[in-house]
Amino acid sequence: MAITGDSTIYDLLQEKPESSDVLFSFGMGCIGCAIARGETIKQAADAHGIPVAELLTALGIEE
User: Fold this and answer.
1) Structural domain of residue 28, as residue ranges?
2) CB of 31 closer than 8 Å to CB of 20
3) Does residue 2 fall inside a structural domain?
4) What confidence tens digit (pLDDT) does each residue in 9-49 have?
5) Residue 54 contacts by C-beta under 8 Å, 6 or more apart in sequence?
6) Disulfide-capable partner of 28 in 15, 23, 32, 60 (CB 3.0 to 4.6 Å)?
7) Domain-embedded: residue 3
8) CB within 8 Å of 55: residues ≥ 6 apart
9) Is residue 48 in a domain?
10) 21 φ, ψ to 5°?
11) What are the pLDDT digits (tens) for 38-63?
């Protein structure tokens, strides 16, 4: 599965578990968050006030 900004946090962590370090570095405690199953990476960035492009670049994924 290709992970994009429209993928859920859950899918991201399933496909790229090492992404948890990147999320934590941005102050995102997505591991264990009930919303992670349905919230996209873009939505999570917006909710945490993180520039989407910056997060996607750090995660090494495309929009």
Assistant:
1) 9-59
2) yes
3) no
4) 999 999 999 999 999 999 887 777 777 788 999 999 999 99
5) none
6) 23
7) no
8) 22, 26, 41, 45
9) yes
10) -65, -40
11) 899 999 999 999 999 999 999 999 77
